[in-house]
Amino acid sequence: MIRSCLYVGQVMHRRLIPFRHRFAYRVFSLWLDLDELPALSQQLRWFSHNRFNLISFHDRDHGRRDGGPLKPWVEGLLAERGMTIHGGRVAMLCFPRVLGYAFNPLTIYFCWDGTGELRAVLYQVKNTFGEQHCYLPPLAPRQSSQALIIQSCDKRFHVSPFIGMAATYRFRLQEPDDRLSIMIRQATPAGELLQAVHSASRVRLDDAALLRVWVTHPLVTVKVIAGIHWEAFKLWLKGARYHSRPAPPKVEVSR
User: Fold this and answer.
1) Distance between CA 107 and CA 126 in Å, rounded?
2) What is the pLDDT of residue 161?
3) How far is CA 59 from CA 72, 95, 101, 119, 145, in A?
4) Cβ-count burial of 141 within 10 angstroms (0-12 exposed, 13-18 middle, 19+ buried)?
5) Domain residue spans in the chain?
6) Which residues contact 187 (CB under 8 A, 6 or more apart)?
7) Count of alpha carbons within 13 Å of 50, Cβ hemisphere only?
């Protein structure tokens, strides 16, 4: 049974202070069990791994972006921090390449151990300057796989020129199942500044579904990067304060 799938839904951002600003875009995402990538590439006509296709996934878009396999990279990051998953599953939520292009502001890796217990959630953030950083916040024990995942960490990496660095991320999500629900709040000394919500429904990953999302969400990855710059322009018109870009963190991962 293939665990990988599509999630079709929307991403919504809401800015709360010092003025209100909201936008929402329809998107589709890939949910990939990294152990299934070779089989998916062989079974699907419109999806390829590390090759051009209508919809594709390239290792060099993620991780250290050196083209290396991603599961060993994730396992290595966890092991360096005293966390082992003993050959358990790693799945990731990301935007695919569509006709060869992709941009992923946020990629989320879910890591289970050999017993099926979720051990870690790794967030990889990219900005439009070609930089990236990972957050690995603590994961509290949960009673079941349906229990909410509540995490937080201090902001260490510059993303938007209209949001400063004095902030804390607060994550609220569930293990993806029939529904995907992810909320990220950004708190600042002045109050809660930003809310981002990704909500979607699970869709079987097959050739018919890939063609359907390509037709209903044309050039979705181009829309992601275009939307970032368009919304930034509207924030500038509203008088949002500009923050200079600091040097990125010297470490790969913040906890």
Assistant:
1) 9
2) 92
3) 12, 12, 13, 23, 28
4) exposed
5) 9-239
6) 167, 168, 170, 193
7) 12
pLDDT digits (tens, 9 = 90+) for 78-121: 999 999 998 899 999 999 999 999 999 999 999 999 999 999 99
CA distances from 143 to 47, 110, 125, 139, 215 (A): 36, 17, 29, 12, 41
CB 40 within 8 A of CB 47: yes
pLDDT digits (tens, 9 = 90+) for 137-173: 999 888 777 889 999 999 999 999 999 999 999 999 9
